Amino acid sequence: MTTLFANARLIDPEAGTDGPGWLLVEGETILATGTGEAPEARETVDCGGKCLAPGIVDIGVKVCEPGERHKESFGSAGAAAAAGGVTTMVTRPDTLPAIDTPEVLEFVTRRARDASPVRIRPMAALTKGREGREMVEIGFLQDAGAVAFTDGDKVVENTKVLSRAMTYARSLGALVIAHPQDPGLSDGACATSGKFASLRGLPAVSPMAERMALDRDLALVEMTGVKYHADQITAARALPALERAKNNGRDVTAGVSIHHLTLNELDVGDYRTFFKVKPPLRAETDRVALVEAVASGLIDVISSMHTPQDEESKRLPYEEAASGAVGLETLLPAALRLYHAEAIDLPRLWRALSLNPARRLGLETGRLARGAPADLVLFDPDFPFVLDRFGLRSKSKNTPFDGAKMQGRVLGTWVAGVRVHEGG
Q1: pLDDT for the residue numbered 424
Q2: Cis peptide before 97, with omega less than 30 degrees from 0?
Q3: CA distance 104 to 100
Q4: pLDDT tens figures, 156-182
Q5: Phi-psi label, residue 129: left if phi above 0, alpha if psi -120 to 50, beta otherwise
Q6: Which residues pair with 127 in a beta bridge?
Q7: Which of 82, 180, 258, 331 is 20 to 30 Å apart from 222, CA to CA?
Q8: Alpha-carbon gap, residue 56 to 77, rounded angstroms
Q9: Do residues 148 and 175 make contact, with C-beta atoms less than 8 angstroms apart?
Q10: In whole angstroms, what is the distance from residue 299 CA to residue 357 CA?
């Protein structure tokens, strides 16, 4: 079975190109790309001059199975991902119970396989119960399919425990993903320190809490030699430490959430809890610095940090409301804000959305090269719309972009050459 994607605007993050062409798929893989006269195929998809790019690889998606299926299931998350152009979800282990044993990981893998139309690559906890006291059986969990190890936003406070876990992970070639926030300084905070937080009377934390935690982690990386990824860099003050580690040859990468790239602390306004995320939204100067870091390649990965919360946990006073926002369907149009602002071109943007996260996890996706999996997204970058959160496919509707004017519509999503979403 061959499928020709004709009359496309090919976005190739590996080659760094953006131009007209065609792409030929045979079975589950890409057979060829080119310009000029297209070859014949059994089926032809006319792209109408719209953008065809590798499917998004989203690191840090929370699917609330097991434990909180009313917030999000693999079925609803998979449908949301397909509608958002996400072809691989890298899921977090902060479930109830935590994904910290091969048995729980097997359950998650089976549920994902049965319910989700997109690929699922699960992460496992770094310590048992995400309690920071005893490391998990990293080797067994790797054998069961874990692609990385993280305690999520529960920072391992005991440096000796973390160093031992990193040393063991290094011996197995496992990737450790950390959340660089000093837990003592961050405890109870829901805003970034500054004039805005003071005027609103919100308990706040300095961005230095991020830099301090990152400095500790990078020192342990130097000591152990582990493969390390910071899930979210959100403060400009943390960027020099990240740059030094990279320049010193450490096996270090970093990500940033789409919310910290496109929103700032002032968007909280009069205590709008859908804008309460973790870490809290930063100053505009931080946001601009992060965009520049993505454009330069210092920050490697953009993710949605999809965190579903039900209405009851968000309709509370700002300090008491749960943190997090859904982002699978809004990741692509929100990221295109950076393109329309001429801050990042599409090939660079897709390096951070697709190629770099795939490479970090050792996946073959994220490319338009011959032999790569045919995980693709066709989208119109200029299509305007006003987001209605009740139209989202996620069970939870806690998006900060509700009512926002956005651009970018997914026209089609393919996983292993099979169409899993058809846009309007």
Answers
A1: 67
A2: yes
A3: 7
A4: 999 999 999 999 999 999 999 999 999
A5: left
A6: 135
A7: 258
A8: 14
A9: yes
A10: 11
d(CA 140, CA 64): 23
The residue with tokens 């006269």 is 37
For the chain, how many residues are written?
A: 424
Q: Record the pTM.
A: 0.96
Domains of the chain: 2-51+374-422 (2.30.40.10), 55-360 (3.20.20.140)
d(C-alpha 314, C-alpha 306), whole Å: 15
Helices (H), 237-307: 239-247, 258-262, 284-296
What pLDDT, on a 0 to 100 scale, did the predictor assign at position 99? 97
End-to-end CA distance of the chain: 25
Report angle CA 145, 150, 152 to the nearest 5 degrees. 130
* Cβ–Cβ under 8 Å, residues 39 and 28: no
Percent of the chain with pLDDT over 90: 99
Structure tokens at 413: 């999503």
Compute the distance between CA of residue 80 and CA of residue 67 in angstroms, rounded to an integer: 20
CA distance 58 to 255: 11
> 322: which DSSP letter?
P
Distance CA 213, CA 179 (A): 8
